[in-house]
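Section 4.2 – Deliverable D4.2 (structural model, holo form)

The reporting period included a commitment to supply a predicted holo structure for the target in complex with AR6. Inputs used:
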Amino acid sequence: MYFTSVQERKISLNIHGTVELEREFGIARLRLMLGDITEQSCDAIVNAANPSLMGGGGVDGAIHRKGGPVVLRECIKIRSSIYKDGLPVGEAVVTTAGALKAKYIIHTVGPVWRGGGHGEAQLLSKAYVSSLTLATRLGVRSLAFPSISTGAYGYPVEEASKVALGTVSRFLKTTPGTLKDVIFILYKMTDFEAYAKTLAGL
Ligand code: AR6
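Output (C-alpha cells):
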C-alpha cells in the first residue's frame, strides 16, 4: 500500500506495517524507517553513547539491555586500553552485538546541543563519518543509525536530520566501499517526518 507524504515523496507501508522511505545514492540505498534499532538484523547498528561507554538511558540503555553484559565487558576493555579518558565526541569504536540480531555495535558519541554555536554540526557530522568509516573497515554491508544527539543531548531534530542525511549521502556518493544499505531507525513519528522532509530535499 502506498500513500503520499507531506513532502510529496512516496512513503511505503510494507507488509510488516512498517513506515519506510528510501533514496538511492550510487550503489547504496539510504532508508528511513520508523522502529526500534535493537530489533534490526543488519550487519551493524550504531549506538548513541556517551564518552564513558558504560551505558546510559535512551537508545544506549536499550542496546546494552538487549545486547547483554558482553557488550559492557567489551566497552570496559576499550576504556582500559585505548580510551582511558573516555571516547571523545565524534569518534567511534566497535564491540560485539551480544544477543542482538546485528553482528556489531558501533558506539559513537554525538555532541550535546549548546545553542548551535559550539561546533555542534561539525561534531555531529564527525560522529556519522567515524561510524561509516569504521563500518566500511569492518566490511559492513548494512548499517542502522539512530538519530544521534536528538534525545538526551537536545540537538533539534530538524537541524540534526540535515547534518545526518547530508553527511551519510555525501559519504555514500564519494566513498567506495562495502556499504549497500544504510537505514535510519527513527523512534518517533515526528522524528521520521523531520528526516523525511530533509531526505526529500537532498
Ligand atoms: N531505537 C531507535 N531510536 C531510539 C531508541 C530505540 N530503541 N530509543 C531511543 N531512541 P538518546 P543522545 C531515539 O537520548 O541524544 C544516553 O543516556 C530517541 O528517540 O538515546 O545522543 C547516552 O548514554 C532519540 O531520537 O541519545 C548518552 O548519555 C535518539 O534515539 C545520551 O543519552 C537519540 O536519543 C546520548 O544522547
